[in-house]
Design the sequence.
């Protein structure tokens, strides 16, 4: 078995000063080495973790480069074996041998070995799918599961009554196909709510109901991006919307985030002609900072000048505990370059799978037309129930109660963390190892580095507090502190 034991120091020298992203530099150098025959067919490559360690870069940097090479056919991935150089390169496929010398394989064998599309490969090997984000699905809630609201405080009986009422009185009209844009009363309720609370300028006609925010990202990426288009993404960034851009064939351009949010000047320096920018201006995921007004205006000016699109993920904007939140970026947009995405999954309950996409007026017809070929529409019963929940005032009251509840839980977490000195880890400590150690102590965390595309100066653990009580938070912090203290010496700085 051929194995490239130390290919990094021998071949791949990455320049951190260049504007070209590190993952792109690595991709280009690896592709060149394969085409030049330095790595022959079947050569096994190091694991992403081993190569990242040798190069001194974030693991996601290597995973992005591997993912692009896999998608283009230069590498092959085999379960239990690893990643190897493809036996047939894309350039070879341009010269198709005669069929007489190479009779077609049996149909069953062709199906078994049929490759995915390039987009399919990109999604299948997306570097953002952290094992910590997947293994927790469907498992009992514990500290510090992120992205889950306070399910214990949701008015379940009231919701059940509203759903039952819709079943009794409206099921006959909910049985048939619905409008692709969504249930009209719900669209009107959302437009009114966003106008009053987030400063979003829209009518109900611009609101499309989608199956959660992820469906909104996917639909926008399908319609706004061509394969190969560059798209700015925050670094670090939440994995879900980035995956939608990868699925559309986009080339992701990581743009750093500081205390004022996305560094727009860095994005312009790295890729001024990007087709789209994906941002979380109200509450950056996962760092939690707010995009400053100056940066917002600079981002809008860039989009207007470049005829680029901005995909605004208004993640977790309903909850802010200090000061008045800035209004949505969409409300400042006078050039119609912003598409606004929101969801009810983080506010009510995740299984509801209802979100919304607010598009500029000139894009409405195209998005509705495309909707017919994607999933047509989401469940009419849940849409109708949610419309009643909002129009009868229950939604606003629930938000008000949750702000008070979450403020208390956040304060408990902050107080306990300051006592035990966790969350941001000491320089040099491996946050992935820390997360694994925490899991062995019954604590659910996500390493911050799993959200990054380029190396981070310091590791950390993402701690959610909404889903568990203050008592569970305090117990969870004590467990986490014990886990970090019990790390093997080799994993400590």
Sequence:
């Amino acid at each position: 078995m051929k194995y490239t034991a130390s290919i990094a120091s021998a071949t791949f020298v990455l320049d951190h000063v260049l504007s070209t992203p590190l993952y792109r530099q690595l991709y280009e150098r690896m592709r060149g080495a394969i085409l030049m025959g330095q790595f022959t067919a079947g050569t096994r490559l190091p694991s992403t973790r081993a190569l990242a360690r040798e190069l001194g870069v974030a693991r996601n940097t290597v995973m992005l480069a591997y993912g692009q090479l896999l998608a283009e056919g230069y590498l092959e991935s085999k379960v239990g074996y690893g990643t190897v150089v493809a036996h047939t390169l894309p350039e070879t496929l341009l010269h198709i041998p005669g069929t007489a010398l190479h009779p077609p394989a049996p149909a069953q064998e062709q199906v078994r070995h049929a490759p995915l599309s390039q987009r399919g490969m990109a999604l299948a090997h997306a570097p953002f799918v952290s094992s910590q984000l997947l293994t927790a699905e469907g498992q009992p809630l514990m500290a510090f599961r992120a992205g889950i609201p306070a399910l214990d405080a949701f008015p379940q009986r009231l919701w059940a009554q509203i759903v039952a009422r819709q079943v009794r009185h409206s099921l006959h009209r909910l049985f048939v196909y619905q409008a692709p844009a969504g249930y009209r009363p719900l669209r009107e309720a959302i437009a009114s709510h966003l106008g009053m609370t987030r400063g979003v300028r829209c009518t109900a006609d611009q609101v499309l109901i989608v199956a959660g925010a992820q469906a909104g990202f996917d639909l926008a990426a399908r319609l706004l991006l061509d394969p190969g288009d560059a798209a700015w993404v925050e670094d670090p960034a939440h994995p879900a919307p980035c995956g939608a851009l990868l699925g559309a064939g986009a080339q992701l351009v990581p743009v750093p985030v500081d205390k004022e949010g996305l560094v727009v000047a860095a994005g312009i320096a790295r890729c001024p002609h990007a087709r789209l920018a994906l941002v979380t201006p109200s509450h950056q995921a996962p760092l939690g900072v707010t995009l400053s007004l100056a940066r917002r205006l600079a981002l809008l000016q860039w989009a207007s000048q470049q005829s680029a699109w901005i995909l605004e993920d208004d993640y977790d904007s309903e909850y802010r505990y200090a000061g008045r939140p800035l209004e949505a970026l969409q409300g400042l947009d006078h050039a119609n370059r912003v598409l606004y995405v929101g969801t009810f999954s983080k506010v009510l309950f995740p299984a509801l799978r209802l979100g919304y996409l607010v598009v500029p007026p000139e894009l409405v017809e195209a998005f509705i037309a495309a909707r017919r070929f994607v999933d047509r529409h989401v469940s009419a019963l849940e849409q109708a129930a949610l419309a009643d929940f909002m129009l009868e005032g229950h939604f606003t009251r629930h938000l008000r109660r949750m702000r008070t509840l979450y403020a208390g839980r956040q304060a408990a977490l902050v107080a306990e963390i300051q006592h035990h000195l966790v969350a941001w880890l000491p320089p040099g400590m491996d946050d992935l190892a820390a997360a694994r150690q925490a899991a062995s102590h019954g604590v659910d965390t996500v390493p911050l580095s799993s959200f990054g595309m380029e190396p981070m100066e310091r590791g950390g653990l993402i701690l959610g507090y909404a889903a568990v009580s203050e008592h569970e938070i305090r117990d969870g912090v004590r467990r986490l502190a014990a886990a970090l203290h019990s790390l093997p010496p080799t994993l400590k700085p």
User: Anything to note?
Assistant: Residues 281 and 291 are 5 Å apart (CA to CA). The first helix runs from residue 7 to 11. The longest strand covers residues 251-258. The chain has three domains: 7-91+120-124, 131-153+395-491, 179-376.
